[in-house]
């Protein structure tokens, strides 16, 4: 005890006060709780004091002295034990009373007293009377109470139950017998509740016992054979029994004696306040009382002061109250944490301060602040190792930069490394901290610690450093293996490959690593680093890409729908960028893919790309970019260095390769546009542009023909001056019976007419087909061919002769038809005249309808048909025999007149006819446009087109 430091962590809150004069008798007991202090006196009164120890109210609890008091915590009940009057010559009766302080009842006098819930005699026939030496109440689950009354004969009377309803149970406990009667008195009691276990400590001057009240019968266990006197017993906050003897203070647990503290002197009072032990010790030599507050955990005396004759000690409102025999009261309160720490800091007692804040369960921020100040103190004394040990404890509360800045000196790199390691262990390191720690390792060349830091992560939970920062620092410091380990472990494949390819040049290892990844990750990495891989390992890269895009195309993966399966695989189009400097590898990759996958969702894009590659005029893209970036002189010098023979050989190889690619392109154009498909499996417009730009006539002819652009087809032959091919093309495409366009022969004839060279043979052949299909009038043919000065009349002589003979026959046929129509017209006019001027004689004797003999009434028509009137019914205005033919004529006329009102039909017939004039003549001949007022306005507006159709 004498080695313990003394501090004034407590202080008197105010000068000592005197209890109110209402407390008139001698104080025998007191209790506190629920914001009040209750004082019992020898005159049977109980006084209740408020926070300022002012008298609140009082009442008479017993007729005689109040022996014991206890304020309950859960309910505002006050339990008292005192003496009450009895009929002489009997001695006073000891009663136990329970008062409800929240309820009052009026008495005959002006005073009011709380309601007494229960009154019972402590001693009965089964519980003989003895002197009460200790008293304790345990609040069980409301409304149950357990009252323990210790006697001077070693017995403990227990009363348990609902006192308000008088449902109680009494039982007796007995400590072990001793020879001396004075050693049997129960000087202290203490309840210990732990879960369902209920235990009772009992102290006598000669023993310490423990009763297990949850067992039946109640078991007793002797913990020690030395006890203490009255008021030397209390309970700690951990429910340990504390016993004070002159030589020391002892702690008891359920299994026996625990630690003891050698505080000399008679322990007049013991108490427990928060985590402090309170002792009023009487010095054996001077006889004076000293009040000490012990911090047992930190082994210091938090407060010590000389006091007078203390009668009672209690705690309430966060303060300690000492009631003296002269009724003066000392109020002692604990200082705030900041004041206590300032006191310790001034004395440089940082370890004490640290222990203090930790023992009093201060918040972590306050503890860290104390540790920081201690660290600063040690740092100022240049005790860097110990200072860093304190700073490490502040991690999580103190800004790391505060510590790092202090240890940035190169001589303190070991301490800085230690701090950064702890920072990473707790997962509080940032990217900058990781960078700094790794730089420390590399600067110290501490490969072992670097390995431990990099490879020490167990992979469970979140890693404790920033992965990307670790990779960057290790890579920059030349620790490529460590950087690759981190990248591989944490799935940073892009960094792993970046190191392999850019730093180590391990292309084959990079390809093997990519092959080990799952398809989605492999696709992303190849797309990112494919250009480098294709440049150095084109074949292996192509194989990996083919595997990604096809996934082997094994039957186990195709399952039910091949289209659905292919749609989730990467598309070859996604990897087009990586082949930008190696078109040959790109072409090989796409060719293999097309061979493996027949119905790819991206086949249109793939075919377009293949056509670009096949039809490119200069396949060496790399050399193209170099040619564009270098001067002409560089090309000349390069060519001179290679020599003329090597240039010629190279040109031959390029031309051969070009022809092979063009052949592949033509096969692709044809295979991707079969005859049964309306649209090709590529962009036909894009293909036309490619073929035209690269002078690929075979492909251009195929596309024009598939797109039915026949005029463009013959245009290609014209541009190539291929007369045989031109005529052969027209034979194939100009046959109308096979869906061709006969007008192609007209274009061919115009071409030969404008050619300006002798092409008699070709013109004669063309005239054969024009004459066969009657495509042009002879005069037009002569006009077209007359533009070519190299052609003679002999070319068209036979054609003209045949056409003149044919025209003569047509004229003769027309003349005969005219004469016939004139005769028919003359006959019809005579008949009309006869009908108008002469009478008709009807001589039919039979009805035309029923063929029976004609009798009256009869009806005769001008068409010389006669009918019974009954056979006609209601229709007597037209002949039933002639009416259908007449209606047909009228309907035809109506349709013709209606067609005149629809000019679009008329013009369409004019345009589609070989001889537009004949169509117009036919309309006039049928009388549909015989009257000007019947002509549609649009016909008058576009009348100029009539003549054009006859051309």
From TrEMBL:
<dbReference type="GO" id="GO:0008270">
    <property type="term" value="F:zinc ion binding"/>
</dbReference>
<dbReference type="InterPro" id="IPR000547">
    <property type="entry name" value="Clathrin_H-chain/VPS_repeat"/>
</dbReference>
<feature type="compositionally biased region" description="Polar residues">
    <location>
        <begin position="626"/>
        <end position="640"/>
    </location>
</feature>
<comment type="similarity">
    <text>Belongs to the VPS11 family.</text>
</comment>
<dbReference type="InterPro" id="IPR001841">
    <property type="entry name" value="Znf_RING"/>
</dbReference>
<keyword id="KW-0862">Zinc</keyword>
<dbReference type="Pfam" id="PF17122">
    <property type="entry name" value="zf-C3H2C3"/>
</dbReference>
<dbReference type="GO" id="GO:0048284">
    <property type="term" value="P:organelle fusion"/>
</dbReference>
<dbReference type="Pfam" id="PF12451">
    <property type="entry name" value="VPS11_C"/>
</dbReference>
<dbReference type="GO" id="GO:0006886">
    <property type="term" value="P:intracellular protein transport"/>
</dbReference>
<feature type="compositionally biased region" description="Basic and acidic residues">
    <location>
        <begin position="641"/>
        <end position="656"/>
    </location>
</feature>
<feature type="coiled-coil region">
    <location>
        <begin position="801"/>
        <end position="838"/>
    </location>
</feature>
<dbReference type="GO" id="GO:0007032">
    <property type="term" value="P:endosome organization"/>
</dbReference>
<dbReference type="GO" id="GO:0030674">
    <property type="term" value="F:protein-macromolecule adaptor activity"/>
</dbReference>
<dbReference type="GO" id="GO:0030897">
    <property type="term" value="C:HOPS complex"/>
</dbReference>
<comment type="function">
    <text>Involved in regulating membrane fusion at the tonoplast and the prevacuolar compartment.</text>
</comment>
<feature type="region of interest" description="Disordered">
    <location>
        <begin position="626"/>
        <end position="656"/>
    </location>
</feature>
<dbReference type="InterPro" id="IPR016024">
    <property type="entry name" value="ARM-type_fold"/>
</dbReference>
<dbReference type="InterPro" id="IPR016528">
    <property type="entry name" value="VPS11"/>
</dbReference>
<dbReference type="Pfam" id="PF23356">
    <property type="entry name" value="TPR_PEP5_VPS11"/>
</dbReference>
<dbReference type="GO" id="GO:0006904">
    <property type="term" value="P:vesicle docking involved in exocytosis"/>
</dbReference>
<dbReference type="GO" id="GO:0009705">
    <property type="term" value="C:plant-type vacuole membrane"/>
</dbReference>
<keyword id="KW-0472">Membrane</keyword>
<keyword id="KW-0479">Metal-binding</keyword>
<dbReference type="InterPro" id="IPR011990">
    <property type="entry name" value="TPR-like_helical_dom_sf"/>
</dbReference>
<dbReference type="InterPro" id="IPR057308">
    <property type="entry name" value="CHCR_PEP5_VPS11"/>
</dbReference>
<dbReference type="GO" id="GO:0033263">
    <property type="term" value="C:CORVET complex"/>
</dbReference>
<feature type="repeat" description="CHCR">
    <location>
        <begin position="391"/>
        <end position="542"/>
    </location>
</feature>
<protein>
    <recommendedName>
        <fullName>Vacuolar protein sorting-associated protein 11 homolog</fullName>
    </recommendedName>
</protein>
<dbReference type="InterPro" id="IPR036322">
    <property type="entry name" value="WD40_repeat_dom_sf"/>
</dbReference>
<dbReference type="GO" id="GO:0007033">
    <property type="term" value="P:vacuole organization"/>
</dbReference>
<dbReference type="Pfam" id="PF23266">
    <property type="entry name" value="VPS11_N"/>
</dbReference>
<feature type="domain" description="RING-type">
    <location>
        <begin position="847"/>
        <end position="882"/>
    </location>
</feature>
<keyword id="KW-0175">Coiled coil</keyword>
<dbReference type="InterPro" id="IPR024763">
    <property type="entry name" value="VPS11_C"/>
</dbReference>
<keyword id="KW-0926">Vacuole</keyword>
<comment type="subunit">
    <text>Core component of at least two putative endosomal tethering complexes, the homotypic fusion and vacuole protein sorting (HOPS) complex and the class C core vacuole/endosome tethering (CORVET) complex.</text>
</comment>
<keyword id="KW-0863">Zinc-finger</keyword>
